[in-house]
Fold these 4 entries.
Entry 1:
Amino acid sequence: MDHVQADAVVIGAGHNGLVAANLLADAGWDVVVCEAAGEPGGAVRSAEVTAPGFVTDLGSSFYPMAAASPVLNALDLGSYGLAWRRAPLVLAHVFGAEAVAIAPDPDGTAASLEAASPGDGAAWLRAYERWRELRVLVLAALFDPFPPVRAGARLARQAGVAELVRLARFGLLPVRRYGAEEFPGHAAAALLAGLTLHTDLGPDSSGGAIFAWLLAMLGQDVGFPVPEGGAGQLTAALATRLGKAGGVLRCGAPVEAVVVSSGRAVGVRLAGGELLTARRAVLADVSAPALYGSLLPADALPPRLLDDLRRFEWDHATIKVNWALSGPVPWLAGATAREAGTVHLAGDLAAMGEYAAAISAGRLPRAPYLVIGQTTTADPTRSPAGTQSLWAYTRVPRRDWTAAAVREHADRMAAAIEAAAPGFADLVLARHLQGPGDLAGMDGNLDQGALNAGTAGVHQQLVFRPLPGLGRADTPVDRLYIAGASAHPGGGVHGGPGANAARAALARAGRAGPLYAAVIRAAHRLVY
Ligand SMILES: Cc1cc2nc3c(=O)[nH]c(=O)nc-3n(C[C@H](O)[C@H](O)[C@H](O)COP(=O)(O)OP(=O)(O)OC[C@H]3O[C@@H](n4cnc5c(N)ncnc54)[C@H](O)[C@@H]3O)c2cc1C
């Protein structure tokens, strides 16, 4: 076989790897993407796993961050087959027989919140107004490579230093405090806490409010859209675009080592021994523990980094259940829950606090908090007319999960839905389970089903993500970049880590490359 040579080799065809490959191919580079699995996408895939005609998203499903991401929008995926679909309501938070919802228009959301908690509607409109003022700068600060100097300076100019200090405080706020400070009633506070719980943070975790705020405001702004036909259509659009730009995607090609010579990444070795040479860069859409702990030789890394790796914290494990239903979920809360694409089955703030505390203590929560996807409500192509392709996931402690224990917990999840929607069980045509081991088996980055490629805790964000360092895609190995969700700005489908890695590789290979490398080397000497 001819020895493959390319300008860049990308390890992993998750959406971040595909984003990175697209940007490099756009810049005229030869790119080869090596994907371990039989198909691309990582946690952005779909298949008929419950019953014929029912499409299930196997990992992620709703994409507010993708719809708002300047990175993905610049790729114009609509021209490569991606079409967004939206449910009549964005998100419902169900408390037993009651529910509140984010509606597509802010006044609709305000009315829903106001009916449940007087004062919350007006507070929501104030929060959304503030979001509209800051939106462009917040998104730029989030998606620019770290440190976001230009976006930060514009934010300081526009908001003023006094406001910036308060924004920094907001960045550290637990969601329970945010609710208490800004929303007089219980409804918005619970809705927001439910959004924080999409991460591994609880209502009292520092840094939890900003995730809730971001997801809530994006939900109000762009909705929680889904790709028509299944999550895999987002991956298909990225892969099609890459093919048209001249990139090569090889599936069933697990990388077992990054080849390093004189402190520089020069290629990869596939399981089976094949070598691929990378003339300019290797980009790794893999977790930080996989990259630093197994793909690289230990002697290629500073001892301090290896020591930090011991302290890397994964986020919680996950159990996901997929159902084919003969009809819509018969929510006691009625249309508010039925018409939402995403549903939190969560209860009040106290219940969410107990759930989060139990998982942190390594115990199974009495009442599992569920994020539920009513995907046919969002996209009627997901299952036959009148039926529902439904999934629910919940977070669980990291431990050895046997198949029997996963089944038992899946039964608890179904029981929680039955309690809020009597008659649910009678609609079940088929059920498919994804326990922590199944999720990791589908995509090696999802260690025990960790959704976020590492905790969302403040101690592992910005310059601490994925390990203490520069918060950038550059690694201590020259021409090797970390491109996956372990890196800043972290988990979720938005392409940020992939784009940052591609930009770093282009800067390193550009005319000012030697200067760029010298600056990064000097900065690394300071932090390691
Ligand atoms: C159940 C679940 C629900 C989620 N829900 C949402 C949601 O609704 N909305 C949202 O925005 N986000 C959601 N997320 C998070 C989001 O899906 C991830 O953060 C995102 O997909 C990560 O993308 P990535 O490209 O960094 O990595 P991945 O998607 O994990 O892709 C990594 C790829 O690299 C491959 N790989 C790994 N190691 C190697 C190797 N050595 N050689 C070759 N290939 C390798 C893997 O097989 C995989 O294909 C969810 C995640 C899960 C698991």
Entry 2:
Amino acid sequence: MPTRTCLVVALSDSVALMRNGEVSYWWQALGGFPPRRPSLPGSLDVDVCVVGGGYTGLWTAYYLAGLRPELRIVVLEAAFAGYGASGRNGGWVTAELPGSRARYARAAGGADGVRALESALRATVAEIGRVCAAESIDCDFVKGGRLSVATTPSQLARLREGLAGLREWGDGDDVYQFLSRDETRERVNVAGALGGLYAPASARVQPAALAAGIATAAERRGVEIFEATPVSLIEANSSGTGPSGTGPSGTGPSGTGPSGTGASGAVARTGFGDVHARAVLRCTEGYTAGLPGARRALLPMNSHMVVTEPLDAAAWREIGWEGCETLSDEAHAYMYAQRTADGRIALGGRGDPYRFGSATDHLGQTDPGTVAALGAVLRRLFPAAADTSIAHAWCGVLGVPRDWCATVTYHQASGIGWAGGYTGHGVAAANLAGRTLADLVAGEKSELTTLPWVGHRSRSWEPEPARWAGVHSLYALYRLADRLETGEAGARPARVRAGEALGRVGDLISGIPH
Ligand SMILES: Cc1cc2nc3c(=O)[nH]c(=O)nc-3n(C[C@H](O)[C@H](O)[C@H](O)COP(=O)(O)OP(=O)(O)OC[C@H]3O[C@@H](n4cnc5c(N)ncnc54)[C@H](O)[C@@H]3O)c2cc1C
């Protein structure tokens, strides 16, 4: 794996040496890629096999090892723990629902079930903070809340409309607060901010440090992580008898093993050997399309990020942002940002949204056009940072289900389970999903195992080229809607209204929840 890729790029009126890819700034800020763990040494019989070493897989293994210390749990990771979105994201630990309330409300729990899921997500932000403290995970966790700013009248109208919906749903000021223009700018001085929505239940983290910390914490609980071990296939055991009768730790069918009795188990196949287990859990989110049988389950949506060099004290005095709120705007193709612990601005957005055939990036390298577009957003929102160079750019994939609703699923009979599809809100959601998957595998009935995303099914994505054409058309439409709304295309009220209408059409076509 190459360790360094440098590109010379023009940034405003300066030329800077920018790093591109290398998985993410977050990993490079920790000193580069982590020391590699061994690959799978050969075929194994274990109790639980987790495929994918991101937040979902690592949290699942961590909590399951806490619940059932007697189980032998292995994690098989294609690259290294935290290589995927978990080591590349914007570091928003947000309680945002990964999906549509209306769609989740169709589950048995109805609207109350959705409220329970949202309340569990809010509690998850604190749970992650608790584990970080308990396990000495130093990941710059700050619970500063989430601030969404409106920078055009259309965005402000959308924000107010959204807030009215939240109030109807029962969310009070303790969950979402409207902020006036001055109140918004007092928190973060975003140029052109007209108002904001503040949600206290959100935290900021250094994503790779969190991923590395969970991996180590899971290992302390006895979980074995094998890296550079791509799984080529997950399937139910054809024998129907399970791997070894009682399982390697002797706990299989005794009632204390995964899912109690009756699971015939499954197998994860790799080039190093096969791992037979009572439970095999697919935790591969944006990479799921690489596995046979799941090629159209989750669309690998690209998200791209840039991070600046550290801002000077004068720039920070101008911008404020002392609460370290996670920050976004209300554009259709929205941006998300954080103030990093080392005094930089990390900002992300959609860029090129999707690669044909569900392909994924190479080590997070992103294209110059996207870097320039994100740089322009940064300079527009933060003029005080306009002369600060971009230090690093990268991208990654997150998993989007066809109905934009995440799932946590476990089939006791086959022993196969999966979780993901958090549509860009996976940092907190993966913790909740991991705890839920752990309960399901352990056969624990808990308040988590009845949440409406448990067992949720989404239909498959369309085959190519419809999939590529659909996603690209949608984001072209969103970008045009944003341009019309901001007036860059020569705004007149009619054009602004056209932009708003286009945005709504986009939401209707895509099914993106609001
Ligand atoms: C740039 C970016 C910014 C984001 N920002 C935010 C944010 O600020 N807040 C938020 O809530 N969410 C954000 N997200 C989404 C969030 O990061 C993800 O939803 C979350 O990290 C998913 O975790 P995961 O463990 O399910 O998947 P991943 O972290 O992607 O982990 C999957 C792992 O599986 C491994 N794998 C894949 N295939 C195989 C295989 N066949 N065999 C073995 N291993 C395999 C991969 O190498 C990878 O390590 C962002 C995502 C991206 C890409």
Entry 3:
Amino acid sequence: MKIKNICCIGAGYVGGPTMSIIAQKNPKIKVHVVDMNTNKIAAWNSENLENLPVYEPGLSKVVKEARGRNLFFSTDVNKHIDEADMIFISVNTPTKTTGEGKGYAADLKYVEACAKQIAKVSKSNKIIVEKSTVPVRTSEKIKQILRLNNTDVDFQILSNPEFLAEGTAMRDLEIPDRVLIGGDDTIKGQKAVNSLVKIYSSWVPKENILTTNLWSSELSKLTANAFLAQRISSINSLSELCEKTGADIEEVSKAIGMDLRIGSSFLKTSVGFGGSCFQKDILNLVYIARSEGLEKVANYWEQVLIINEHQRDRISKKIIDLIRKEKLEPKILLLGWAFKKNTNDTRESAAIYVTNNLLNKNIGIDVYDPKVKQSQVDFDLSNINADYDKSLVNFIEEPFLNVSEYNIIAIMTEWDEFKDYNWEKIYKKINNPSYIFDGRNILEIEKIKKIGFNYIGLGRN
Ligand SMILES: NC(=O)c1ccc[n+]([C@@H]2O[C@H](COP(=O)([O-])OP(=O)(O)OC[C@H]3O[C@@H](n4cnc5c(N)ncnc54)[C@H](O)[C@@H]3O)[C@@H](O)[C@H]2O)c1
């Protein structure tokens, strides 16, 4: 099938950037990104590209080029489903909060709602692409819903999980390590696979486009995230051991990363991983393994999450203990709220959990982040504790305006600007004794100590 019209349901961190690149690279294909969230669509359509709902380096340039030419953002979901030859489902798949699998399984209600809506509206044959991260065999469920609700048209289902990382999404989309497409092993299924291969081939070399069966594709996405998170938890677990033994985690990371069998990426210690995906996808993997009776497999992967929580908690405890022991002002400056640099996404950010731990001990927090808004900080804290003490949290637009009020600065996100601050100037104004908790090991330890700060990094002394 020659694809002329694409519809993507879900204009979030995946749908927006992914469709922008597909539209940019395929100017003859019309791409409509639809969402039921009217504010989000208005932001995607805003004249001022600074106001796009997703912050990603390079995104606004691509939107500027394609928007209005063959890239459109709309709330008219039914119209664009009806017109499309190919529909991407790129909606959220959070962890279930109620019912069977609560706390572990992926909640597929948004995906299922899309399938029902597609079935209801469609009058012509369509290829449905699962872009959302879903449990293995979800495509079977989608197929059932489509068939049950519409017998007049042919639907082919593909799995095409997205591997982009926030913060480097545009680069990841432009030169992906691989594009994965799973489809049915039937003539129609393979034709559908080829249609999607053709779209990606406009910029991705053929050898980087991998085609598999549907189940392998679905499971590969969950597994990729589990492996990545596992590396972070592995290095974070060793950061604590380094602190006990005098080894330096940065030296250990470098030494093991230079082993080509291991490789150097994802070996940077931190206050813990965040983001919308790692936790929920591992929980989902744990749930699937447990549902299949594989208790030991489930326990193995769950440990990745236990270490992540432990890392956040032990850093919180260090700050709390220091304030008590040294009788310091119970107020700190927290630098960074996003779960990592170069994104405005704060979902599951370690900063939220550390802040909550400190608030539970009545420690005041001044928060600064270059890309996150005050309302988001409030939303995140209310989510984890509806009754949190608002009077203890202060969102600040300029990080060092009240620096004389603190003894402690804690870095939560590895934003480049934090490295480049004039730390000497800050030292002259901050309360003494002064401490920097470097939750990302981004500062130059010797330089910071020489200025006079007490430096507390991770896995290094
Ligand atoms: N964020 C990432 O880094 C990332 C990377 C790879 C894969 N994924 C996966 O991609 C999927 C989407 O993630 P995201 O971060 O873009 O989520 P998101 O929450 O940013 O966006 C999802 C959007 O879908 C919309 N939506 C939900 N149901 C809808 C419906 N029935 N009709 C119209 N719009 C609807 C929501 O309003 C929301 O704007 C998830 O399954 C996620 O696991 C995310």
Entry 4:
Amino acid sequence: MIPPEYTGAKIRQTFIDFFAEHRHTFVPSSSLVPGGDQTLLFTNAGMVQFKDIFLGTDKRDYTRAANSQKCMRVAGKHNDLDDVGRDDTHHTFFEMLGNWSFGDYYKKEAITWAWQLLTEVWKLPRQSLYATCFEDEKGQIERDDEAAQWWHAQPGMLPEHVLFYGRKDNFWEMADTGPCGPCSEIHMDRGLEFCNMQDVPGHVCEVNGDCTRFLELWNLVFIQYNRTGPYSLEPLPARHVDTGMGFERIVSVLQGVDSNYKTDILAPLLDVVQELTGHTDEQRAADITPYRVIADHARACTFLIADGVVPGNTGRNYVCRMIVRRAARFGGKLGLHQPFLAQVADKVIELYGDFYPELVRNRKTILNNLTQEEERFQRTVEGGMAKLETLLERLKAEGQVTLPGEQAFELYATYGLPLELTRDVAREQNLAVDEDGFRQAMDAHRRASGAGETFGEMGGEDAPFYRDLLIDLQKAGKLPADGVAYNPYQWLEVEGEVLAIVKQGSAVDQAQPGDKVEILLPETGFYVPSGGQVADTGSIVSVKEPRWEVRVEDVRKPAAGIIVQVGEVLSGLPRAGDMAIARVDASRRKDIMRNHTASHLLHRELQAVLGEHARQAGSLVAPDRLRFDFTHPRGLTSEQLEAVEAGVNQAILNNYPLKISFKPLQKAIAEGAMALFGEKYGEVVRNITIGEPEIYSNELCGGTHVDETGDIGLFLIVSEGSTAAGIRRIEAVTGRAAYELVQRRFKALRMASDLLETSPGQIIEKVQSLLEEQYADHKQISLLRQKLASVEFMERLGSTETIQGVTLLTATLEDTDADTMRQMVDQFRKRFPQNSVVVLATVQDGRPSLIAAMSDDLVPRGLHAGELVKFVAQPLGGSGGGRPTMAQAGGKDASQLEQALAAVPNWVVEHLR
Ligand SMILES: [Zn+2]
Ligand SMILES: [Zn+2]
């Protein structure tokens, strides 16, 4: 039995409580989908949600934080997938415990608290712990004696357990440039019995060594430099601490087990699988790899789906699909051939739901998505696996060792067999897969299908420039400590001094007409794009003579405390120091506000009509339209679309008031506010509720909104479609754009009714009767055409030739279809019941078609209509066949038709016996 203070849940809570006692703010885990960060597929470390603070482009109300962050490492540089299940420690999904100082405490406190928590609270034996510090093997960066000194000062720390290592182990960098610094790690010696290399000759157990005896428990990163080039480090004015402790690992240590899968945060998942297979403990131990893969993957996809990442074909959705399918395949190895992952996921929700309530909220969505995906996989997998086995057999027979990339891609494209699965199967047969070739084939396919790059460049290149500018302006008393004042909700017009004009990345005193500039003012009401809402546009003009004007086209926030208006000088010579008035284009803004509030109403109605699973997965709020992406597995019926549109318009007519309030995130969530997928929220959030006293909609949102829903006017859905598997997209218009749309449609309707000489109200009946008339006319025309053709044909029957006693007719008929030709052949055979051959041809859209027939008595004499029609069709690039007495053919090239028909008499002569 695990003592109550060492259960996984308790260990997590103890960590957070310990740092809360040291005045750290508990910050809930951010989503697995990084908010606003296009460079990352998944949140892969605790620092992801704080990255912008280190870069200086974001600020928080707190300077100390602690959290347990959900992480995924499954693609890209940090890819542990191959090891997952094969050992005791690697995971796709894991939790990272961390404490943080943003320009607050530094090495002394970080080291002291880490030591206290490990040795006093958790009572790990002091003599088993080691600390590593940084010493540059290149001698370019200062040795971290400060950290070493604090380690030596800890009670019970053995002096010989403080060690120095080089850049690979003990220096941390975010990228080629930017914040960086030395790190210090705590390792634990678990004892010789934990060494997995005891029988390797010459093996020595050591910290940062090869075996499993020493475990790295905790990494403390001290961010004290800014790297500006390969050889230049500048000290940072504000130094930060960023620590990370793998949750699964500390739990395994404190619970005294040699595998993460034996802890109480994973073992119960293996137990569920064992119940399903009915295995004995011995059988489970023998098959431990599939057990571990299933436990890991089931946990990962449960968390992914809760964060809105459902199985699909591209990007994150692909990863989710791949993990589900990989788990399903390993289930197959255990004899589980029916969907079973929902049962494992249910256990995940039970184990983790208290700390991660999103799991409980999305339980139904999670379980349904898993089962559906397993069913989908089962439908395609048999074909794909059989095909793969055949390919591998052939390769082995040919003595090859690698499956070509295009073939692996084809298995994916045709059978939905993910590369990772193909690789698993190939590896089990000692074959490799050409993964570069796979990616090339995939890229080629993507380019061919018009899909672009998913992930773009990382921003923030000019953050240092603006940070310096901010410091200068603060020193000069022109900007307060928290920088530019921002209130897009109330200030549509502000007056102030032009603090800076930035042109091509540097500050200039004056700009010229035509210049592209960024204007910095002490206050602004121009909206900085976020949460899908686009930037405001407008103008900045001088207050006094000489006059100048800048047209504002964009707004951005290049660094914390700095907001600039981006635009072009239209006239005059704007100078730094001039007084100016900045005006937001108010009517355009009003259009944006209508669309933003309408998108909240739409979200609400989608959930009402489709169900709770229909959650926002992206949005665009522009002046002319709104676009709303949401999770739903299939297209909406026209009834559902109508119901959603009607619901939104009813909410508009109800003229609900909007109430905007600020409150702590946890409180808002507890009150039922919808926190949107992929968004980043600070500690205090802006809460938008619509409707009173009964709340109709409740969302966290920083956008600008109308005061009452009636301001929206009218809401019309323009289109509904899919963007990715499991994601639907609705585009809609409101207010002016909706009115313009209605106006255009009415105008078209009026024009159409004028043309039809009727009233708009009668137009449908009128069109229906016109269509009926048209149908009757068509029928009449085709009847007449047939009659005409048959009259023409009867004339031709008088001009048959006779060869060796056989009556022969070949003819090309205009404007005839296959039916008419068959009728003509019947007429011919009636007229010449004996000793007769006929070949008719017609050409439609440049393609010839043929029919050949002959009287029954010629068949015993060696003639065959099928062979005859083939003979004629061959020079036309076609083929055909049929009965001995009647056959048909088609061709591609009509230019040889006359010649081919002219050869028929000879054919008859040659074949007739
Ligand atoms: Zn060892
Ligand atoms: Zn919003």
